[in-house]
Amino acid sequence: MDIQTFTKRVQQKENLPYDDMIQAAKILFDEETPKEDIKEFLLALREKGETAEEVAALSIVMKSNAVRIPVPEGPYIDNCGTGGDGLQTFNISTTSAFVLASSGVKVAKHGNRKISSSSGSADVLQALGIHTDFTVEESVQLLKQEGIVFLYAPAVHPKLKRIGEVRRDIGKPTIFNLVGPLTNPVDLDVQLVGINRPDFVEEYAKVLRILGRKRAIVVSGSQGMDEASLDHRNRAVLLENGDIRPLTIDIEQLGLQPATVSHLRGGTPDENAEILKALLKGKRTPYYDAVVLNAALGFYAYGTADSLKDGVAIAREAIESGRAYEKLEAVVEFSQNIIKEQTV
């Protein structure tokens, strides 16, 4: 069977059952499948609207093709969002990852270069002096040493190159935005995912349930921001022991200052790196509150905090004590040492 057969069914607004989507996904990753056919299939899915079963099936096939990262056993969290919101916000989840790791949370963060933003996580990391082409051994060493690792999607998903070219050609979010956070090569117990589609929050939690996450939070912020935003337009759910229930995020009750999405806009990777460093040094701006909020969600999902309010207190303390900035410096030093070794 070829991908065109599945495309025709999707164009007729037929949802693909899990097993059929597994088949279709395998064809997508086949090097012989023409790029134009891949594009047509992805656009058809986008037009129809993806289901939990379709997203879960594609993520399982994509993860099966990933490079294996042999990490020690432990509860790991990823706080990577889907991207694709087009809002040009600064790198909130990347910044939050340093806050989480500085307080004992084991973070395996999946990320990419910019596709639909000014600065993807890999772009800002490079601007900070953290390179993105760690070997598997170096990634494992960094995770063991600092409790955090950044896994650059093209490096851990070698079969994604052709599909990445198709995605850039499409220039709009596709099912691969939804699948990206689900394909971390590290087995995750916990996940915090910001998605760019408020209408898909509960469906996305169902995907995480299919994939066996023990606990997870899915959030979509104002204007479809793929993070929690600092206003009252967040839509969020908590997945816990198979149950999915709404999660209320009350900004003022959490002691945070309301702000619009425009206050969270970033710029180039260098500009975002400066925002990130100033924030982790304690500079109070809407950027600071956005990171505190999103880190709080991570602490609550992971179980470090018993409530979002507790999570906010832990996040603030991690920044104010200097631990979060020290974690950034430690990761930069690790990366720079590897670069020095390579040039000797």
Key descriptive features of the protein:
344 residues; alpha/beta; Pyrimidine Nucleoside Phosphorylase, Chain A, domain 2; 2 domains; five-stranded mixed beta sheet; two-stranded parallel sheet; 15 helices; 7 strands; globular; aromatic amino acid biosynthesis; magnesium; Nuc_phospho_transferase; Anthranilate phosphoribosyltransferase; anthranilate phosphoribosyltransferase activity
Write up this protein.
It is globular, with a radius of gyration of 19 Å. 49% of the residues lie in helices and 10% in strands. The mean pLDDT is 94. α1 (3-11) packs parallel to α3, α2 (18-28) packs across α4 (52-64) and α5 (92-101) packs across α15 (323-343). The chain has helices spanning 3-11, 18-28, 35-48, 52-64, 92-101, 121-128, 136-146, 153-156, 161-170, 175-179, 201-210, 269-280, 286-302, 308-320, 323-343, and strands spanning 77-78, 107-111, 148-152, 190-194, 215-220, 235-240, 243-246. It contains 15 helices and seven strands. The chain has two domains: 3-49; 77-157 and 164-329, 3-Layer(aba) Sandwich (Pyrimidine Nucleoside Phosphorylase, Chain A, domain 2). It is α/β, with parallel strands linked by helices and 344 residues long. The strands form two sheets. The chain has a five-stranded mixed β-sheet, sandwiched between helices. Pathway: Amino-acid biosynthesis; L-tryptophan biosynthesis; L-tryptophan from chorismate: step 2/5. It is an enzyme of class 2 (transferase).
